[in-house]
């Protein structure tokens, strides 16, 4: 199925986000649409990267479809907060565990 998709014999290829960890290379893709975000941004990025592999000849556009007022909107906000917290911790020599609040630590979990 992947070979047919990558060789323009199939126009749409639907996979679950978690399928990104199986080694699929979808270099035939020119659009990636995420409509069910995962709490772990890295897993979502890995799925997107399946279309950005060696052999990709298309410009790839990525869309995130999120409905207002849904759990997915809350997941997106959680991803943003986790990324900001990680950037603050990893990108700042003055930040250490003693500077983190209880809420920050619970947010990491």
UniProtKB/TrEMBL annotation:
Statement: the UniProt record of this protein carries the keyword Nucleotide-binding: yes
GO molecular function: helicase activity; hydrolase activity
Protein name, UniProt field: Snf2 family helicase
Pfam family, any one: Helicase_C
InterPro entries to which the protein is assigned, alphabetical: Helicase_C-like, P-loop_NTPase, SNF2/RAD54-like_C, SNF2_RAD54_helicase_repair
Keywords, ordered alphabetically: ATP-binding, Helicase, Hydrolase, Nucleotide-binding
Domain of life assignment: Bacteria
Helicase C-terminal domain location: 1-106
Origin species: Ligilactobacillus agilis DSM 20509
